[in-house]
Design the sequence.
């Protein structure tokens, strides 16, 4: 594929190539040709001025009757008004400021031209604002007019340094250069048999049609072919990875008939749901194989994922191995340790007075543990005394050694980098089995799931006794009395014997200037700190509000509500910068109903289980992502009483932020919310480490819309790799694969 590997500087010149490389990451002819138009401007069919439809794109042929410059805004602005006529009627063209000077020199009364744009009305006059146009010479006939009118103009993703039309010029240059050589050296990554069976255009034809379409049918044919390129090459990469994984050795872990797992099941005070039994069966079948399990456990908030994961860990311990659960925060690690030891009872007290003969030790390992406790935990792991360890990133440290690590469970997998998961998996003598859990997948996870790289188990059944959660948006700026009523509802819940959470995006002890800088800039959970843990992309300029105040903070809100609307209630705070003992103490007292209202950051987002908490107020809810709001909401309604979640925002009704909140309020279905999240954020880099949609290896393919193409490509790729694992008979496909899966992405796949 040498022709597409040609450096752009050799084709479009050094200056343009540098801008394309520096600002759009386009370095070769192939990079540029795969920088597809985001949409196409339609000039529309020729229309008589007397028949102009409003709000439609039209092209007219007319003569300039008058052109006049006028000022506005007390002389600060300049507007050019041009009247054109075709004998059947007249139309006004308008250009502003610098464009007014430029076009005044060209649009001279008497000149005839073609003018294209969208028809609007201003001051009862039909007009085209900043229309595209081409002036006609006397000899220009009908053909020139028809060509101009019917052409589809590609509009490219651009930047401040290079405009769409300049990119279009560069694309034209590259296409002409390749066409002049007969597209020599441009390979064909799709096998001929596949292209023929699917009716797909050859690659040169597809590239020509996507950039220089004559009709909408051209665009559709090109897009279908180019989607297949992306889906198929990616599926071949994943199929080869799956084949390599299947060849890795792992220890099969089959539990004994009357061992730890059986004893645990016998003491459960409730019956497993049908979903929990089915998912457990899938996991046990994977654990019994001699290659590593790599399974995603996708479950609704409160569906009992932790119990399923615990049964998997007990099965591995039964079979002589050890299991490790990796949690993203100390609060969650402590919560998991507490709930698991409570569920296991004497089965978690092996070697202790009253402990079970078939039991094991369950240890906690976090960064803030005292030296003696940490030393004992490390000793229990290396000797095999502890069958289960629950911990934070401290599990990954070099000092941690296992006797025989057989299973790694990662809770809320989107809170960990691949390197962190890989570091823990690397502590096994042979690759351990891996189970990752999430309540609402982030977009990248959805993408990988659709692409079939993970075996997926789904828990969509809530255990008996769980209550529904009502969610409402509280527009605090538009309707301040709604916020007053929200605090009244919190007080009513407390007076009824229940408890409540209030969640804020910031802690409140940051520097003021830092807080202002963060305002309206939600960060991902691994971006550092808790100051603002939303998981949406940055606010687009002008999308909702140009200037946003700093996000509300735990320390400020706690003080305000304790003095104001919730005066007399027991209000406490919880955030990630508190000392571990202080955090644990607050959570213990909240669980014991000694605290009425807990004002917290997203530190309570996952795993915190207080059945008596029935209400949650999320302040500045627009600063959180869809997935995060769903996770937070899952902290209430965990008992027999119904849950209430109030999403407080100052965003206007027409804003995209309000649309996100309305979507969360409209459904409790985490699967539907993950689709909404994916549609808004795209799928991130499906092979790389980016988790926002800004750096996607998918330029044409959309995971939500193109599932059928993806699934068909997966079947084709699997068959091809089974037949020719080294792709010896497909050199062009191998070249395309090398371009897609560079060294860093190959490493990412290697690590799972």
Sequence:
């Amino acid at each position: 594929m040498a022709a597409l590997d040609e450096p752009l500087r050799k084709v479009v010149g050094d200056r343009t190539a540098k801008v394309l490389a520096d600002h759009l990451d386009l370095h070769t002819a192939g990079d540029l040709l795969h920088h597809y138009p985001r949409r196409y401007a339609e000039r529309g069919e020729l229309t008589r001025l007397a028949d102009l439809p409003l709000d439609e794109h039209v092209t007219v042929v007319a003569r300039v009757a008058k052109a006049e410059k006028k000022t506005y805004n007390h002389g600060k602005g300049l507007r050019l008004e041009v009247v054109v006529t075709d004998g059947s009627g007249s139309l006004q063209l308008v250009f502003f400021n610098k464009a007014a000077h430029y076009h005044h020199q060209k649009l001279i009364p008497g000149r005839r031209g073609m003018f294209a744009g969208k028809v609007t009305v201003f001051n009862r006059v039909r007009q085209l604002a900043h229309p595209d146009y081409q002036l006609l010479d006397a000899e220009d006939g009908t053909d020139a007019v028809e060509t101009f009118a019917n052409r589809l103009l590609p509009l490219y993703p651009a930047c401040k340094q290079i405009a769409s039309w300049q990119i279009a010029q560069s694309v034209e240059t590259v296409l002409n250069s390749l066409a002049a050589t007969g597209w020599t050296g441009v390979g064909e990554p799709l096998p001929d048999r596949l292209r023929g069976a699917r009716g797909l255009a050859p690659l040169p034809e597809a590239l020509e049609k996507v950039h220089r379409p004559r009709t909408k049918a051209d665009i559709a044919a090109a897009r279908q072919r180019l989607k297949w390129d992306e889906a198929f090459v990616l599926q071949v990469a994943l199929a080869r990875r799956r084949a390599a994984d299947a060849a890795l050795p792992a220890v099969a872990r089959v539990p004994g008939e009357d061992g730890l797992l059986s004893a645990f099941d016998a003491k459960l005070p409730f019956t497993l749901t049908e979903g929990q039994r089915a998912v457990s069966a899938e996991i046990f079948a994977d654990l019994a194989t001699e290659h590593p399990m790599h399974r995603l456990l996708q479950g609704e908030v409160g569906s009992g994922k932790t119990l399923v994961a615990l049964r998997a860990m007990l099965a591995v311990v039964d079979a002589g191995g050890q299991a490790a659960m990796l949690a993203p925060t100390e609060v969650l690690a402590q919560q998991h340790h507490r709930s698991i030891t409570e569920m296991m009872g004497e089965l978690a007290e092996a070697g202790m007075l009253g402990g079970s003969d078939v039991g094991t030790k369950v240890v906690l390992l976090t960064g803030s543990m005292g030296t003696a406790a940490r030393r004992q935990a490390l000793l229990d792991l290396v000797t095999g005394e502890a069958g289960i360890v629950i911990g934070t990133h401290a599990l990954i440290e070099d000092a941690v050694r296992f006797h025989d690590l057989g299973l790694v469970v990662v809770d809320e997998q989107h809170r960990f980098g691949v390197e962190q998961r890989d570091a823990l998996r690397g502590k096994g003598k042979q690759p351990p089995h891996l189970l990752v859990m999430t309540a609402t997948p982030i977009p990248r996870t959805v993408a990988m799931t659709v692409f079939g790289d993970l075996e997926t188990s789904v828990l969509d059944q809530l255990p008996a006794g769980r209550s529904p959660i009502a969610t409402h948006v509280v527009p605090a700026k538009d309707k301040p009395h709604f916020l007053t009523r929200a605090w009244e509802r919190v007080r009513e819940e407390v007076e009824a014997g229940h408890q409540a959470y209030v969640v804020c995006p910031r802690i409140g002890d940051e520097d003021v200037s830092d807080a202002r800088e963060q305002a309206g800039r939600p960060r991902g959970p691994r971006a550092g700190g808790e100051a603002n843990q939303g998981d949406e992309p940055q606010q687009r300029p002008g999308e909702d509000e140009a200037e946003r105040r700093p996000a509300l903070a735990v320390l400020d809100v706690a003080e305000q509500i304790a003095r104001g609307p919730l005066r007399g209630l027991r209000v406490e705070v919880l955030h990630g910068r508190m000392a571990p003992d202080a955090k644990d103490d607050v959570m213990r007292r909240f669980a014991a109903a000694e605290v009425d209202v807990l004002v917290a950051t997203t530190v309570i987002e996952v795993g915190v289980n207080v059945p008596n908490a029935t209400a949650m107020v999320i302040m500045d809810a627009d600063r959180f992502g869809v997935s995060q709001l769903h996770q937070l909401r899952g902290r209430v309604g965990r008992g027999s009483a119904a849950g209430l979640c109030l999403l407080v925002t100052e965003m206007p009704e027409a804003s995209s932020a309000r649309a996100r909140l309305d979507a969360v309020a409209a459904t409790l279905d985490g699967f539907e919310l993950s689709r909404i999240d994916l549609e808004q954020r795209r799928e991130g880099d499906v092979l790389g480490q980016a988790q926002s949609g800004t750096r996607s290896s998918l330029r044409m393919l959309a995971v939500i819309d193109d599932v059928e193409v993806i699934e068909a490509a997966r079947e084709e790729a699997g068959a091809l790799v089974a037949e020719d694992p080294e792709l010896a008979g497909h050199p062009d496909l191998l070249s395309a694969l090398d371009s897609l899966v560079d060294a860093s992405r190959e490493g990412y796949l290697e690590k799972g």
Remarks:
- Residues 511-547, 690-695 have pLDDT under 50 and may be disordered.
